[in-house]
Structures are given as C-alpha cells and as structure tokens.
C-alpha cells in the first residue's frame, strides 16, 4: 500500500502512513487515515493540548510551557501507557506544572482535588448539625478597571468585613468556619468581574436562622466596598442556603468544560479558559491579552482559601496544587491494568510531542501498532532518488538530502548510499 498523503485532523498537514504489515490495527480500521471519529473525551483532550500550547505562547518562560511537553528525566524519556481496564491512554515521564489558573491540563486535576475537599467538608458539616450558607460577594465594575486593582480592592473590602462590628458580634460566635473561592469573568462591556463565593458553616436552630444571620452582613459589605473606593448594589451581596452550596460544589469545573466544548456563555463575560479558547481557536488577540493579564494576576494564588483551623477541624489534609497534579500522575502509574505500548527517548519525544493527542488516541484504538503508525506518519517523506546514471551534481544533491551520516570519508557516493 502506498503512502496516504491526505491531511488528518490528528496530524495536521502530516501524511498518514498505512498500518504496519500483518494488519496490526486489527478491525479498528483498514488504514490509519480511516479511524472512526474521536470520542468526546478524545476531542476534549486534543482541545486541552491545543489550548495548553496557546497558553505557553502567551506566557513565555512559565512552567505551563513545560507541562506535559518536557520530559521529567533526561536519562529515561517518556512512556505511552494504555489502561486495559478503562481503555484510556496517558503519558508517563512528563513534567507537570500544577497551575490551576493557566494550564488547561492541570486545572481539571487540581479542581477535582478541591471538589473532593469541599464535598468532605459538607459531609462533615452535616454530621455536626451545621448549616452551610452560600455567600457571594462582588462589586460594581467597569472596563476602566484593571483586574489587579479591582481584585485588591475587593480583597481589602472582604478583610474589612471580617473586622466589622456586625460580623464580630452577631456572626462570629456562630461561625465554625468558611471557605472562599475566587472566580473571574472578563471580556464583556463592563470589563473584569471578580466575585467571591464563600461557603460558611453556621451554628443555628434552622436553615432560615442561619440565612438571617449572614444576611445581616449586607450593609457592612457595601460599607467596606465604599471604604476601598468601590461601589456595590443589591447584586453585590447574595445569600443562599445549603442546596446552593451543594450545587456550587457539584458544578465545580463547569467553566473549564464549557471552554473545551466550544460553546459560549455569551460575550457579556467569559471565563479565563473561554478567553484562552477564543485566542487559540479564533485567533482573538484581545482575548489572549486578557487571559495573559488574568494568569499574571492570579499566579501563586490559592483556588480555595480556608479559614484558620477549619481543615484540621474537619480532618482534611493539606494538598498543594503542585502536589495534587503530581499525585494524580503517581496514582495513575500505580494501576495494575497498565500496558506500556510505546517508549520515547528524550530526543525521540521532542520529535513526536506535537502529536500528543494523536499518540494517545491511536494508542487507545490500536495499542502499540497505533503508536507506531503515528510515529511513522510524523516522519517527513524521504527525498526521491534520481533514476538512470547520475551526474556529479545529482550525487551531491542526494548526499545533502540524506545528511552527513550517509557520507563517506570525503569521497563521492552512489545514489543507493553505498561506496563507489
């Protein structure tokens, strides 16, 4: 079978090779270029890789540029692992960055760890007879506000709120603890829109009593905003009960999944990963600049901030973002259902890593044969050899195309590569 030079969505612009001799791809496909369409999971993974490289371009010298791209050990390289029970492939031996804000690959892993922590907290609160209350805080914003300026003002206002006499006298005696998450949308007519979501655990006789206690913070919050030169309206302060808190935890990571799906939440405001998607998929330079601004402001910030002592009280361990990303890799590597279907030296990986999504997809479809097919497809075609008796110029051209390793000790070569 000849070489199929038609482009592929998995290997853009790279011709696809036929399957290895002997039908190594089985009944999955008659040729690599006729694999079935990717599953949703494979498409999301490919999109995640694509967006990650876009983030690396926007954030030069960041760890995100090395994540799932650079080898962890120059003495070993990279394995392609297929989990035979789950039918999912992955890489082993690559660096991770653990950035929940800037990395489309690590964000989901870290967010899942935080979701587990919040679920554990809510379960513990139920056993203690506590009432979860969902408090959302924000401020009036405009396109003139820089994100760092607006966020710092709101953080200072939140700090003022916790020292306000109403908070100290009415709520603090009944407040066991709280967790704060910061979320941001941007790119709309009114600029950046940061908001705090706080899950508060309150001692009260009923849910209604707990809600009433937290509602008393409305005026103190608006006063705290004014003290920081900010403004707020009724929408700047919202109190909801246990159901809303549970729903919030349940939809954790929905903004990232929306960005991967290609769907839009509206131009009025986009999540940071939607901004990144618009830059990567639509070449939206403004969206890219906004994402870079966001990533710079949030670098090093925690996704969840727990009130002092709450994690220990609830029996929840401390896990950093970087550790969460590394633990996910380690736990995957400990699976008993793993099969190594490919290995690359560091040099070999640098050649094929631009086809990460295709390597994993075809590993899932055809194992080692699928990995080999992608490797062969990623190689540039060999230059055609001249026919007939070549002249001296033709020999020189062939030598140049084949590289220095094909040359003799200064003498000429036949087109076949042998010595004269």
Automatic annotation (TrEMBL):
GO terms for biological process: DNA replication. GO terms for molecular function: DNA binding. Residues 28-40 have a biased composition (Polar residues). Residues 1-45, 400-420 are annotated as: Disordered. The keyword Ion transport does not apply. Residues 9-22 have a biased composition (Pro residues). Keywords: DNA replication, Plasmid. This is Replication protein. It comes from uncultured prokaryote.
